[in-house]
From TrEMBL:
Keywords: Signal. This is Chitin-binding protein. Residues 30-197 form the Chitin-binding type-4 domain. Residues 1-29 form the signal peptide. The keyword Signal applies. InterPro entries: Cellulose/chitin-bd_N, GlcNAc_Chitin_IntDeg, Ig_E-set. The keyword Protein transport does not apply. It comes from Actinocatenispora rupis. It comes from the Bacteria.
């Protein structure tokens, strides 16, 4: 945890220093989901191993915004098309990622931790459909076409810890995946987080 804390502080410091050279870094916002716990966060916690670089920077899964019309390519959604984070796309046999136990229709507080805040357009949460195969990397045709929860960012800078109350989708059972997308207001990018869930 100490290493991770230092890295977070380093990311913020590097961000502040990099404001003068934004051309080299198109977005200085970073964040990851802590509820439901994302694959990136499980890697950072050390709960799962063989995670590669993502264990040091769970906040960095950044890709073009506009999902599902744009954004990371199919099969590489959880890693945001970053080759260094490819472990996030690995389904690990369909049962290798820890799950968050949830219930369809329940009130749920979705949480993000932001290591660097940025003006926000919206937050969206997608869930997998009946076409989902947990043993295969995530593709768009495995997701319901519309998010089950959308939160307007109001073009405002959010706090470092964001909580959003919504309702888990009904009619789901067994192992599924929730894709959270944080869309930044004044860059071309968004942040993507995959969380494995079990609806029981």
């Amino acid at each position: 945890m100490r290493i991770r804390h230092v890295l977070r502080l380093g990311a913020v410091s590097a961000t502040a220093a990099g404001l003068a050279v934004l051309a080299a870094s198109p977005s200085y916002a970073h964040g990851y989901t802590t509820a439901p716990v994302s694959r990136a966060e499980y890697c950072a916690q050390g709960t799962v191993g063989d995670c590669g670089e993502i264990q040091y920077e769970p906040q960095s899964v950044e890709a073009p915004k506009g999902f599902p019309a744009a954004g990371p390519s199919d099969g590489h959604i959880c890693a945001g098309d970053h080759a260094d984070f490819a472990q996030l796309d690995d389904p690990r046999g369909g049962t290798g990622w820890p799950v968050n136990h949830v219930t369809g229709g329940q009130s749920y507080t979705f949480r993000w931790h932001l290591t660097a805040q940025h003006r926000t357009t919206k937050w969206e949460y997608f869930v997998t459909s009946d076409a989902y195969d947990p043993a295969k990397p995530l593709t768009r045709d495995m997701l319901e076409p519309q998010p089950f929860l959308t939160v307007d960012g109001g073009d405002a800078v959010p706090p470092a810890d964001v909580s959003q109350t919504g309702t888990m989708p009904g009619g789901k059972s067994g192992r599924q995946l929730i894709l959270a997308v944080w869309t930044i207001a004044d860059t071309a990018n968004a942040f993507y987080q995959c969380s494995d869930v079990d609806f029981g």
